[in-house]
């Protein structure tokens, strides 16, 4: 069943448009090895993604999704700087677009629907990645995890987009793979689509009760009413 009246779509990035776990895991693992600490696997990284690089590295240092309360803040910041460097140096060579992403974005673009990126990924990486994978031209706004004082699951970025583009909450759709995306949209009273193939800490996205649950990105065209 289509959602009528959508005038703007905000997309998460990692786990929604891009499978970036291999590169993130490589950078996190190199960071831990450089610090002489236990390494990090892709399987671990997949369950730790979603709250930004600082939290990801905190989880790697803690070897748990729950941050160790005794974690040394100085070590945490040093590890984060190392991670950012390793991630940049890696060149995102193992990251891939999910099937149907480019074609679906092109169809929505041709239909005149403006779109934005709202990710918790540090903003320094996002424009280059969008360019690298040939999808930067589809987005009017690119919002990273450090663009504003608050990031998802806070609705700050969605409220900002609605104000900038003169939208009502019923005209905005958030598309993501994580409960952070769903919670942000729900807090902003926007529609939200949850994708099952992403990360979401290893939990079913349906547990967060998005308005629609999709298994493939291209199914978004069955949800958004295009004039």
From TrEMBL:
Recorded GO MF terms: metal ion binding; phosphoglycolate phosphatase activity
Catalysed reaction, written as an equation: 2-phosphoglycolate + H2O = glycolate + phosphate
Co-factor requirement: Mg(2+)
Keyword Metal-binding attached: yes
Domain of life: Bacteria
EC numbers, comma separated: 3.1.3.18
Recorded metabolic or biological pathway in which this protein acts: Organic acid metabolism; glycolate biosynthesis; glycolate from 2-phosphoglycolate: step 1/1
Annotated Gene Ontology cellular component terms: cytosol
InterPro entries reported for this sequence: HAD-like_hydrolase_sf, HAD-like_sf, HAD-SF_hydro_IA, HAD-SF_hydro_IIIA, HAD_2, HAD_sf, PGP-like_dom2, PGPase_prok
Gene Ontology BP annotations: carbohydrate metabolic process; DNA repair; glycolate biosynthetic process
Enzyme class name: hydrolase
Keyword field: Carbohydrate metabolism, Hydrolase, Magnesium, Metal-binding
Positions bound to Mg(2+): 12, 14, 177
Residues at the catalytic site: 12
Gene3D superfamilies for the chain: HAD superfamily/HAD-like (3.40.50.1000), Putative phosphatase, domain 2 (1.10.150.240)
Record's function text: Specifically catalyzes the dephosphorylation of 2-phosphoglycolate. Is involved in the dissimilation of the intracellular 2-phosphoglycolate formed during the DNA repair of 3'-phosphoglycolate ends, a major class of DNA lesions induced by oxidative stress.
PANTHER family reported for this sequence: PHOSPHOGLYCOLATE PHOSPHATASE (PTHR43434:SF1)
NCBIfam families: HAD-SF-IA-v1, HAD-SF-IA-v3, HAD-SF-IIIA, PGP_bact, PRK13222.1-2
Family that this chain belongs to: Belongs to the HAD-like hydrolase superfamily. CbbY/CbbZ/Gph/YieH family.
Protein name, entry field: Phosphoglycolate phosphatase
Organism: Photobacterium halotolerans
